[in-house]
Amino acid sequence: MKSNYIINGFQQTVQERFSAQSKALNEACMKRLAQLRVENKDASKEKQRHLEGQILPGIAVYETLKTVMTPEEAFRTVHGYVEAYALSARKMLVGLLRLPGLYRLVPGVSVRMMHKIFNGAAGFSAKEYQTVGGVMRIDMVKCPYHETCVRYGCPELCACFCDSDDIAYDNMHPKLLWHRTKTLGRGGDCCDFGLKVKGK
After folding, report:
1. d(CA 54, CA 4)
2. CA 82 to CA 157: how far, in whole Å?
3. Does residue 157 carry a pLDDT above 90?
4. Cβ-based burial of 58 (10 A; exposed 0-12, middle 13-18, buried ≥19)
5. What is the C-alpha separation between 184 and 197, in angstroms, rounded?
6. What is the spatial distance between Cα 66 and Cα 118, in angstroms, rounded to a whole number?
7. Which helix (H) or strand (E) element contains residue 73?
8. Average of pLDDT values for 115-136?
9. Which end of the chain has fewer CB atoms at under 10 Å, N or C?
10. Is residue 178 within 8 Å of 172, Cβ to Cβ?
11. Closest listed residue to residue 152, CA positions, set 41, 51, 36
12. Residue 67 vs residues 22, 29, 61, 83: alpha-carbon distances, Å
């Protein structure tokens, strides 16, 4: 099975902070993850990418941490794993965008990525306003991250994944403007994604 950054972070945390209980905590987490996988086995291949990559490991870890931490501390801990992952993605993006003129392509590439990965088959639904001319303006009105967290009684956990977008994409290049005022995971009626080349 492919290594998962949230599970890896959890294993390190319990080893460092709860060493006497680490075996039991790891077993409980993996048991819960296996149960979540069974309950979501009928999801499409496209949705499984998101469920396996972040959503289900996040829920399993969050629930397990709450048995030895306050809900607030458990949230901060999972948020830390997601934040570190987003920061590594940001570092890669910033390095890539040092190539002259490459920043101009980012809004268009982002739209293509939305269509490929964050599409209806994966459980997303979006309303597109502008996706050409160096401008991406999309409202995501349905999101499996939000829906799954709500279904399992941890809607607050979704904010970790919302925050990761802002961490990765805000100020990634001086000539690119990332703009978002609300997300489903933070209680909004949509996630209003905006990305454009300055002056567009």
Report:
1. 8
2. 11
3. yes
4. buried
5. 25
6. 30
7. helix 71-96
8. 95
9. N
10. yes
11. 36
12. 12, 11, 10, 22
pLDDT mean over 55-75? 98
Q: What is the CA radius of gyration of the chain?
A: 18
Look up tokens 């639904």; give the residue. 125
CA angle 60, 66, 67 (to 5 degrees): 100
Helix (H) or strand (E) holding 191: strand 191-197
Phi/psi for 58 (5° steps) reads: -60, -45
Counts for the chain of helices (H) and strands (E), in that order: 8, 4
**pLDDT score of 2:** 67
> Where does residue 110 fall: left (phi above 0), alpha (psi -120 to 50 degrees), or beta otherwise?
alpha
Residue 136 has pLDDT above 60, yes or no: yes
Length of the chain: 200
pTM for this model (two decimals): 0.94
Cβ contact 82:163 at 8 Å = yes
CA distance 177 to 199: 10
Beta bridge partners of 142: 125
Amino acid at the residue 63: E
Q: Which amino acid is at 180?
A: R
For residue 96, give Cα distances in angstroms to 84, 101, 178, 184.
Answer: 19, 11, 17, 30
